[in-house]
Design goal:
The chain has 725 residues and is an alpha/beta fold. The protein has a seven-stranded mixed beta sheet, with helices on both faces. It has a six-stranded mixed beta sheet with strand order 18-19-17-20-21-22. It starts with 9 loop residues before the first strand and ends with a helix.
Length: 725
């Protein structure tokens, strides 16, 4: 029986069953469970004088009952690691401090678990546990499990109590969630003496509270999330069943020993007796898998489930260990992080199996919640990303993948952690292999670097990193496949319409609550060019004619942008003037910082008609910068596809999109001149080095000839030939 808040096993009287063996598999020898990493468990024993507290500590230390006068306290008692099943040493402190004494507060803060003793033959002693000791321990700042122990069991006759221990203790456990376990013992008869400290250690190493709620009789949400991920990782063929082979693989990973055929049949029989629909010849469902763990916990075998959780990287708070969630690489601001081919395959498969069980190509919000169930916090929660939805608010698979691409680009840490929780692994079968090198516009990029792959069940191959942006642009072709474009223009220029049009929303639809046009609304949709496999991300920034480059760069994050589109209302001269001024500012910044940011102009609201002077002025202006004429578009007329294609092509092929100002031409000429001078200098230094080498060679040869002449010997023939050569 477990505490609804703290949880735990209740061993009722001397007739209670002995503790279950740690990590024992059905029909087999016990296997040491995976520990929590603790080097020692510190136990503080407290209680009123005369209840048998010190005799209990003395009995476990000496394996005998102390004869004669018992001191008020025992010195620090150490139980070696091999004395208890978890192979973790125990340090026992016997406290004689009263409950309201200041000294107790220091002892409470230094312990891992408290053993609170009372006299099993004295109802008044038990009453003080509830009215005095437990409230005082709370006041002392105790934030650790408490094990209630009734001592002097040998002095209590069965006639003294009509109710069972469970009936007596349950009200206390309901009122004080920190009470993990209760049992009774006798130091004189050595009944359950060692078990007291076994359960105390177990309350620290294998706590029930994070796993199970006995008020509802169900596993807690965080525990189910963790077991869901473990099930996915063990389901190698992704058929939502654990076959006999997969169950054995799970068993070996967790307990270092396979199940024998009769044991495996026994496991299935246990599930089938209670849940016949959750087990078959093909395997065990996730519900059947959960039932097994609930059964372990109900029988006080929390260590079995904890062993499983810890083998798969979970800590005591049921979060994955930080080293599993940390990004396995570092990257610069000029680099882009994207999903690898294997991660895309995994996510596509996951969408089909979990979020789209009906096979209609769409996922409802409820189905997406089911997909993200193993993740403590969805990586999409509050991220401000808009993707295409149908009239019922459902996401298609392309929109689902676009949102993931945006997450990987904007928050690699969140994407990596979520993929780890979802069950992606380097050695998992995710539905077929794909290359981690992507192509954009039909050209092999070769620009993405895979961050590790291989066994061990890690998640290091989920993301890839691009080359630094400068290196890509010097090659005049970008290797990344998630491309971010910033829309810059006056308020009302048509930026919101372009953002809405990208995801199939009405051009005048309001942006989501909490997102302003100044801060931008990040959006993502799969690239619309049939030859492209890129994902386009758009953000927007309102500016005026007096805007400065530094404010635009900072507000729009241009240093991490792949291109910048300067949007103006085709029918407004003032709107064009703002876009003209902003483009000049950004072009000068790009030239001065060697950013080489691709740019284009977009004439929005083309259905309103463009004035002839604006058309000619804008075309001439673009030509002066070496850019194509403005892309004319009207989201209301439904012809926005062209502008998105231009954004992708400009971002991918930077040779035609970098504006050429007079300053940038001069800077490029200077750089070219410096490169030429450097080449000439290198050649001159090389010539000097060769001349010096030849001079030393000639001098050395001449000296040898003189020495040979003085000694009457002739110079070897090869020396002359070498000098001539």
């Amino acid at each position: 029986a477990a505490n609804g808040g703290g949880g735990g096993a209740v061993a009722a009287g001397a007739g209670a069953q002995a503790p279950a063996q740690q990590g024992a598999r059905a029909g087999g020898a016990p296997v040491a469970p995976a520990g929590s990493g603790r080097a020692v468990v510190r136990i503080l024993v407290v209680g009123d004088k005369g209840v048998g507290k010190t005799s209990l500590v003395a009995a476990v230390a000496t394996k005998s009952f102390p004869e004669g006068e018992v001191p008020s306290t025992q010195p620090l008692t150490v139980l070696a690691a091999d004395e208890l099943p978890d192979n973790v040493p125990v340090h026992i402190t016997d406290s004689d401090a009263p409950a309201d004494h200041a000294a107790l507060r220091d002892e409470v803060r230094a312990t891992d678990v408290i053993v609170l003793t009372y006299a099993a033959d004295d109802d008044a002693s038990l009453a003080r546990v509830r009215t005095h000791w437990l409230p005082e321990l709370r006041a002392a700042g105790a934030a650790v499990p408490v094990v209630l122990v009734g001592c002097r069991l040998d002095l209590r006759s069965s006639a003294n109590r009509n109710a069972t221990l469970m009936e007596v203790i349950q009200p206390i456990m309901n009122a004080f969630s920190e009470v993990e376990t209760c049992l009774e013992c006798s130091a004189k008869k050595l009944i359950y003496v060692t078990e007291v400290f076994y359960y105390a250690q177990k309350a620290v190493l294998h706590p029930t509270a994070p796993l199970y709620d006995t008020e509802t009789g169900e596993l807690k949400t965080d525990c189910v999330r963790a077991l869901k991920r473990i099930f996915v990782l063990c389901d190698k063929d992704k058929d939502s069943l654990l076959s006999d082979e997969e169950l054995n693989g799970f068993q070996v990973r967790c307990f270092r020993a396979p199940l024998q055929p009769e044991e495996l049949a026994g496991v299935k029989r246990v599930i089938g007796d209670k849940m016949p629909s959750e087990v078959s010849a093909e395997g065990v469902t996730f519900k059947g898998f959960l039932y097994l763990h609930a059964l372990f916990i109900e029988k006080g075998r929390m260590e079995t489930t904890w062993t499983v959780l810890r083998r798969f990287g979970y800590s005591d708070d049921l979060a994955l260990a930080p080293e599993l969630l940390a990004l396995p690489f570092a990257y610069e601001a000029s680099q882009s992080v994207e999903l690898s081919g294997r991660a895309r395959t995994f996510l596509n498969s996951y969408f089909s199996r979990i979020a789209d069980p009906h096979g209609d190509g769409f996922a409802t919000r409820r189905e997406l919640d089911e997909l993200f169930y193993p993740v403590p916090t969805s990586p999409w929660e509050g991220d401000g990303v808009m993707v295409e939805e149908d009239a019922d608010g459902r996401l298609g698979q392309s929109a689902f993948m676009a949102h993931w691409a945006a997450t990987a680009r904007r928050s690699p840490q969140a994407a990596h952690a979520a993929l780890t929780y979802l069950g992606f692994s380097d050695d998992g079968a995710h539905g077929g292999g794909t290359s981690d090198s992507s192509s954009v516009g039909g050209h092999a990029s070769g620009g993405m670097q895979s961050i590790g792959a291989g066994g061990g069940g890690g998640c290091s191959s989920a993301l890839v990193v691009s080359r630094p942006r400068g290196a890509e642009r010097r090659r005049r072709r970008v290797g990344r496949t998630t491309l971010r474009c910033v829309l810059v223009g006056a308020k009302g220029a048509g930026k919101r319409g372009l953002m809405n049009g990208l995801v199939g929303r009405p051009y005048d639809a309001a942006l989501p609550d909490g997102v302003t046009t100044a801060a931008g609304c990040m959006m993502a949709v799969e690239g619309m060019d049939a030859q492209a496999t890129a994902t386009l991300l758009l953000t927007a920034l309102d500016v005026d004619a007096d805007c400065r480059a530094d404010s635009i760069v900072a507000a729009a994050g241009l240093e991490s942008a792949d291109c910048c589109a300067f949007v103006f209302d085709s029918s407004s001269a003032e709107s064009y003037r703002v876009a003209h001024a902003a483009l000049l500012q950004v072009a000068e910044w790009s030239a001065g910082t060697d950013a080489d940011l691709p740019c284009l102009m977009v004439a929005a609201k083309d259905d309103l008609g463009m004035a002839e002077d604006i058309a000619s002025r804008s075309s001439e202006f673009c030509a002066s910068l070496g850019l194509e004429p403005p892309v004319q578009t009207s989201v209301r007329a439904g012809d926005a596809k062209t502008v998105y294609e231009h954004m992708l092509s400009v971002a991918v092929d930077v040779s035609a999109g970098v504006p050429e100002t007079e300053a940038s031409r001069l800077a490029r000429a200077r750089r070219k001149q410096l490169v030429t001078y450097a080449a000439y200098g290198a050649a001159a230094l090389g010539a000097v080095a060769i001349g010096a080498y030849m001079y030393r060679l000639a001098t050395s040869t001449s000296k040898r000839r003189d020495d040979d002449g003085r000694s009457g010997s002739s110079a070897p023939a090869f020396a002359s030939a070498r000098l001539d050569l």
